[in-house]
Design goal:
Layout lengths: L1 H29 L7 H23 L6 H25 L1
Helix pairs in contact: 1-2, 2-3
């Protein structure tokens, strides 16, 4: 049961980090400053932060007009659902 606790903590933290990355990138975009690479934003999604990414995209209207970005985010969501299922099956 302790392992599940660590998995939950990981997913909470990676989603917070992902959300903050999107927030920071949006703020930099507004000020026409150096931006966070899209590759970094995608990596945070694929590492488990998809929910944070999607929440930030919706709340800040960030990257919502880029179809390729949205497709990759949806693929990250599907990937995360599969990985989360596999982790739960193995730990329970």
């Amino acid at each position: 049961m302790d392992r599940i606790k660590y998995v939950i903590i990981y997913f909470v933290l990676i989603n917070i980090i992902s959300f903050l990355l999107f927030f920071t990138d949006k703020q930099k975009a507004k000020r026409d400053r150096w931006r966070i690479k899209e590759r970094t934003l995608h990596m945070s999604s694929f590492l488990g932060g998809t929910l944070g990414s999607i929440a930030a995209m919706i709340l800040f209207h960030h990257k919502t007009k880029k179809p390729a970005f949205i497709v990759i985010t949806v693929l990250a969501l599907i990937f995360n659902i599969f990985v989360t299922y596999e982790i739960c099956v193995r730990l329970l």
